[in-house]
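User: Okay, second chain of the day. Same drill as before: sequence in, structure tokens out.
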Amino acid sequence: MARFLPEVNTNFTNPLDLGAQGALPHIYFRTIITLDKDPNIDAIVFVKDPERFKGLEQRLTDKMGFSKSTNLNKVFITYIGKAIRVCTKPLIAVMLKISEGFEEYKSRYSFKLKLLNRSVPVYESVESAAIVLNHLNNYREFLQKHGQYPKS
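Assistant: Same drill. Structure tokens below.
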């Protein structure tokens, strides 16, 4: 990832932090694709808050190569859809609650529905996503113990 992410304002260890680059849909996509190729990663849990960078996105839209009328959440969904088609590992979204306003709620709800329609589960906290992954792992271990799941 060092090929396309700057060293400043990013964290390459787990948990990965894209910093300001996380506002760029194509960087999100490249990161997901790169993580999918890593044999040490079983699932990709990503945090996306559609309303979090609204001001930043409005200021940087032109600099990112998009017109001012571009809906970046729609562009993100397009890139996540592309990632889903090529990834072999499950994608799980976490959408932390940032704002309480009606416009933010509409943005969040729309984004969440689009993810769910693409079979990407969405959780409101990292803890909830981790609990679900732990239960899935426990179930896998149970099935393996009873010879009902490949040991891989």
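Residues 126-145 form the longest helix (20 residues).

User: Thanks, on to the next one.
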